[in-house]
Each structure stands twice: as C-alpha cells, then as structure tokens.
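Backbone-to-sequence.
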C-alpha cells in the first residue's frame, strides 16, 4: 500500500492562525498592560482548547492506527517525524490520548486548566507502573486522577 502524503495545512488551522493574528492586531510592545494581559488570557484559553482537541485527534489517530497509512510504524514516529513534535512533547500527548479511553474527563480537565499535559503524563506513568506492580503484587492500592493534581 502506498503511503499517503500530508502536505497542506488544514483550512481550520489557517483560520485559527488568522484569528490569533487579528487578536494581537499590532505589535505587543505597543499594547497597554491591561490589553496585553487580556489578549494573553485569550491566547491561553485558545491554547487549552487546542490542546484538548489535539489530544482527542491523537486518540482517534491511535485508535484507527492511521499512522500506518502514512508509512510510519508507530504513533510516536508519526508525531515526531511528520508533525515535528519533540520526543518529550509527543510522548506527553500520546500518554494523554491513551488515557482518554479509561479517563475521558482528561479532555475537559485539560481544556479548563485543572490539569496540564505534564500532570497527565505523570498520571499515565503512575498507571503504567501500577499495572506492572499489580502484575507482580496485586495487593497494592490503586492510583486515581486526584493523586496526579
């Protein structure tokens, strides 16, 4: 099977970049403090929404194994080579995406800012460690999302 190509930026992504450019409107060095912090707040909210959406997309890409259609052997390779995520950034997003099946509230928590990707990644590591530990010693306790906060 021929690998697919990803050469274009989706229209929605271009629209989002244009929205951010309009939001800033002028050089940030010219903005009064109140407008600077207000614009920054809008960008932070947008970043949180985008992060939650990206995690949901990665979850779907992983579930369908879409990366195979593009000639990649793993989701990690797909994110680092095709989308230029750093290895650490890719792994944090993969960790969060894979937790969506068992802990769907992660998406809302990322969007509202009550969790960040670093916390979710730590939680995912704790879950993996607990699974490994439970295989060796099933009497150990459980890890919950509240412990990651």
């Amino acid at each position: 099977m021929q690998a697919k190509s990803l050469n274009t930026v989706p229209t929605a992504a271009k629209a989002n970049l244009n929205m951010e450019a309009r939001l800033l409107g002028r050089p940030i060095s010219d903005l009064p403090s109140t407008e600077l912090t207000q614009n920054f707040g809008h960008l932070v909210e947008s970043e949180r929404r985008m992060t939650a959406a990206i995690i949901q997309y990665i979850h779907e890409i992983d579930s369908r194994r879409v990366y195979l259609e593009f000639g990649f052997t793993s989701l990690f390779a797909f994110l680092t080579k095709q989308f230029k995520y750093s290895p650490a950034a890719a792994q944090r997003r993969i960790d969060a995406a894979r937790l969506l099946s068992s802990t769907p509230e992660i998406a809302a928590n990322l969007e509202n800012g009550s969790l960040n990707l670093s916390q979710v990644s730590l939680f995912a590591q704790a879950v993996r460690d607990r699974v490994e530990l439970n295989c060796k010693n099933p009497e150990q306790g459980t890890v919950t999302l509240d412990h990651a906060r």
